[in-house]
Sequence to fold (370 residues):
Amino acid sequence: YVLGLLSHTERKNGWTLAEFAGDVSPDGMQRLLNFCAWDAGAVRDAVRRYVVKNLGDPSAVLAADETGFLKKGSKSAGVARQYTGTAGRVENAQVGVFLAYAGPDGSRALIDRELYLPEKWTADRDRCRAAGIGDEVAFATKPALARDMLERAVKAGVPFAWFTADEVYGQNPGLRDWLEDHEIGYVMAVPCSELITVAAGRKRADALAALVPGQAWQRLSCADGSKGPRLYDWALVDAAGSGHFLLVRRSLHLNGKGEKELAYFWCCAPRGAALAELVSVAGARWAVEDCFAEAKNETGLDHYQVRLYQAWYRHITLSMLAHAFLAVSAHALRPAPVPPDPPPASADDSQPAQKGTRSLWTNIQPAQDI
Fold:
């Protein structure tokens, strides 16, 4: 099954994987996912150990995000009309929440996954049972699923320094409190309406951004994209409470409305951090998007044709295993980094944030390079 996922077969479903294996029907592949006795959770743990052994770094970032799997019909576990970024609109789809491991050298791989079940699913136990969802599986929000995966990573001793995610997770107080209780630094996107407590009281994020003086913006790259460094202007606003900041990102070019778009990130740095490091963590979130693109294009992450809850986890986990193999292989073949030239003797070392992030995160590679 995994060799088929790694093959050049265009579509990687039960039929095509069976043909690749020389089987006359997909019965064996379907039995592997639906009925055979094996533990997808144990395989997930093995994938995580494999990634950590080969890509592990104490300064790594864990990134959470969800992706959609467009489906027809109503029988597949968790399928519902819901918004998915895969389509950019509300569609009939399953949604999976994933945790990616992003190393400072640009390596990345998926290490955990959970299927999101909408409330109308968990409220209908007969429907759940028909899809193989046990009575013990209750409704959980996407941030709660991310927290479960983080708990597993922490318990397993995964080496990392930061966590990052988009607005769905960044504006969730429960997830933020859990991270702070465990002294895990984070940089998570928040909406412009997020209320931030500063010395002058509580203000919206966009109101605080409007108060940033021109000289306070710094131009830095948060990562490399397919066209080179992703350059933005950045500003950091101190918030009330030790180690908390509002990070603001401003685009360099005008949009269709003649405005420079702004994005906002709520940051907690229990051990302290310079602007450049916070910027690099914000940029690390692209790693999970790259993983989705790579796994869907190369290892059939979204090519499955299963309906049962357990079968979804089994296919997704085996696809993650295949993707991790590609990620580790690509990492092993990557040339050793060339150390940067030392700064001139007259360089001002008093402002390290001005030097940007090239030594930290700009080596994140675009999806097509894996």
Observations:
- The mean pLDDT is 90.
- The first helix runs from residue 2 to 6.
- DSSP finds 13 helices and twelve strands in the chain.
